[in-house]
Amino acid sequence: MSEGRHVAIIGAGAVGVISAIEALREGYRVTLIDAGEPGGEQAASYGNAGWLSSHSVIPPAEPGVWKKVPGYLVDPLGPLAIRWSYLPKALPWLVKYLLSGWTEARVETTAFALRGLLKDAPQLHRKLAEEAGVPELIERNGVMHVFPSRGNFDNDLGWRVRKRVGVECLELSSDEMRQREPDLHPRYTFGVVVEEAGRCRDPGAYVAALAQHALASGAKLVRAKAIGLKLSGNKLVAVLTETGEIACDAAVIAAGAHSKRLTASIGDPLPLETERGYHVMIENPESGPRSSMMASDAKMVVNWTDKGLRAAGTVEIAGLEAAPNWKRAEILRNHLVSMFPKLPTDIPASRIKTWFGHRPSMPDGRPCIGYARASRDIVYAFGHGHIGLVGSARTGRLVAQLLSGKPPEIPLAPFSPDRFL
Question: What is the pTM of this model?
Fold first, then answer.
């Protein structure tokens, strides 16, 4: 069925390049379309925290979060900030966001769905990294969550739900945590380790290596901005770009936060929003964690990368066009120094790198993976939000299965674009 067919994949981020690799396995001719450099700083994949957290199954909204919305509106530097000027445009998405986590049962439904998407992700990424010649970039050595108290963990709905969907964790007392992480601030007195999880030592380099692997395996890369799709009846004819048409038999929309206008152009107005994220990275740090970790009080992931110690997190709802608020990156730096007191407070600016980018997010915390209504020649694979890197490995496999008409390896009903149409 796939032999000789040409698939155009719009977007050369983690999802796009892995979809290309998997489509090549199925015998497709593949063209990647992206105006930017695969793995470049413009991409969400580049700025990812680097976690391969197969336990990231909890949607962003949980019961009662609606009570915090007024605070989000008045605090531009909080863990989740909403710019007043963007509120009217974001309001329909925010309503869906709040409703998706209105009850614990809804959270659990999403958690079971995401568990299927993310389970075994570190192993899948390790295999891809080996194929691409960069096995050292993927490590499967667990991740740690740290809490100021045992009560913070026990009262966290997310951890109760994770247990119900099969996530196991090793609990650590204050002394056990200190043995593992001697530089961590003593205010953290309880921790858990999720041993199945892993990390990526350089997300940008990893995506770039996967793209090179796809090209070496026969894919082509067209550096252009996709602006639409050309259909004849229910058959795809071409992808339209700013530099011309690319004839193809099938297409994958994996353009991250820029996917919304492409789906709307063919009759699928999907509620995709950008959760703008920041990271700060300290080169040659004097101190830090021995393992990758998340601090529950700062809502921040800390991860060693080959380029330095990276802290990433927080969410800003302000759209694709607004200028970044670099004070949000400064807060991440302050949290990092607070977590590890041996880090100097006067680190030279030349050793501190900051980044800002766009997480593509659906309001219910689940990506869109499925067919367009206009044509089964078009597959959607976007909206992964906080799980783009970890979720990309299985998403790429699912894309290839959808293209070929094979039964998907996990149930795709929870990810169907139709749930919003």
Answer: 0.97
